[in-house]
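User: I'm putting together notes for a lab meeting next week and I want to include a structural view of one of the chains we've been expressing. I don't have a solved structure, so I'd like a prediction I can at least talk through. The sequence is below, exactly as it appears in our construct file.
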Amino acid sequence: MSITASPWYQAYLTPDARAVKFALKATLAMLLALYIALWMDLQRPYWALISAAFLQIRPMSGMVLEKGLSQVSGTLVGAIAGITLMALFAQAPILALGGLTLWIMLCTYGSALLRNNAAYGCIMGAVTAMLIVVIGAGAPERIFSIAVARLSELALGATCATLVSALLWPSRVSTHLGQQADSVVNQAFSHAAYRLRDTPDNAALEATLTDTLAPLTRLEGDSQAARYEGPEGAGRIRASHVLTRHTLRLMATLHALQQLFHYDDQQISAPVRQLAEQLADGFEDAAGQSGTQPARQSLHALRRRALDYPDTALTPLEQRCLLGLREALGHALVMLDARDAITHPSGKSLRGVALAWHRDHLVAGINALRAGAIFASLATFWLTTGWTNGQVAMLLGTLFSAFFASRENPVAVCMTFAKGMLAAIPSAFIFGHVLLAQASGFPMLAMIFLTPLFLGLLGSANPRLLGYCLAFTIGNILLTMPGNGMDFSFDSFINRALAVLVGLSAVVTGFRFIPGPGATLRRKRLVRSIAGDLRRLAGDPVEDAETGFIGRMADRLLHLSRHDDTLPEDQRHLFSLGLTGLDLGYACLQLRRRLDGLDNPVLARAQHAFITALASDYAATARGHAPQSIHSASAALIAAAEDEPSLNPRRQALLAGLVKRLTLSLERQATRTRQVHHAHAAAVPAPRRD
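Assistant: Thanks for the context. Below is the predicted structure for the 690-residue chain, given as structure tokens.
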């Protein structure tokens, strides 16, 4: 890699205006927080700095406000928990630390099940309770004042960050959501073009699919912050839900169509294939358009062509393909409407329900167990040695054991933060002790102390350097601990540096000794969860079932795509498995919408049995077994539909085509899984025989 391509070169020698503005805003927020904290003579002003720094990581005004509210709420709940623990066990420190360990585990468990800033609030609840109990252990009579001080410091940092974010170069969530929506729509349309080609590019398929899902999940989570940016925020949230829902519907439909077009050559006629090629060209043109109106006109013309296509001479399977092409265009047009509504919500009226998320209680439980073990080991070390700086080590252990648990490779993230903290040691010694000891007055303190913080924040604007530079910034604050009565002695500095290293070492050791579930187990649990959701589609109300199924599937598809990235090229099948599950779920929902209103108990039982058989065979095909239950269930459903007088021959033909398409999808998935298993077995070397 050339020097000019290095992220360090780009961050510090050729920074863009956005990075400079971000660093200036965050530095000014910390400067304001530090000045007010010193003027109010707060006990630990550096907590206000850390609070302001964390809130500026994503500097959009609505997100800063949302994160600030979550931080203050979590701090308040943590303060109540800390006061309660000390009220119960003020004279029994071991029991107090035991109760605190359980509280930290509970907060970590909650943060693993929640999303975005709600998870951050849980982490702050754990950290605040830990500080109150540990600091108050030596002065139980001052517990309430300690709690008020912690809440004041963190609230001050949140307030300063919110004010600076709103007043200086304000960046709005609405603009961010519009950019994310553009990325989702363009990538989804590019993906549609690749799917419908007669000879698809598999590498491009995977790339566009991942590039669509990543901003889609961020859009769904980030949209919640729009409620803090005026009355139009609710409309943007609904539009984001609609865009998520119809993007996933489009992906599921395209996956099913590709299987039919490219694996069943003899069953799909050439004219239908030509229509699919024309749609592919239209999606490709729409993806390259700069605005939504030209793309909408192009897709409307294609939809009219698909609607006017004669279907009387088509087989049931071809009719199903034609209907799938029409549905894909319909989803694409709704996506464009949702994209417009995100930017101009007052001009559109869309109905969208918040989606559910995939929650893995096993992973949450392991995260809680690990966080409790890390804190318990550090607390035992603190009690045994009586080390005054042990609270810094416990702080880092509590914060990072929960903060890093949601990352894909927490050990690597820990090592990245450790490198940033190590780089902060000489920086804090020079700027925070040698130079700061010679300074007098607040202006000199600010100039000297904030210089390394500004440099760290400038690098944090680059996502590739965020781990190093954010750790460098926080390390400088913790190692300097600015205040009205600072201790510039060398032994105090070394003690804090050792505490930082001990805390990070405990976190790394905890993640190594108590890792998360392995890739194989996580894969099996994801497939089991998808199969369970498919079974629930047979009984839950349609709207509730769809909302929960779509939201959880978006999350699961991202997990499966990350697992696929770790496999060799010829063994990647997990994402396809997830898309098959998504397609089956949408097909079940469509089936229920068309048949639920019919007063026919025999047809209702056949439909329920068919959906249950789909779920069972989906789990079987994930293991490479051929589908078994679907054949008899399909025959029973078709027979019941033929006996229903309200279903005309065309609707019966479409139902037969849908049943056949789903059966073919399961058979193809089983074949693909067996091929992957054979490839994996061939890649594993045979054991040696001596």
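A couple of points you could mention at the meeting. Residues 16-171+360-513 form one domain. The chain has a mean pLDDT of 83.

User: Perfect, that's what I needed.
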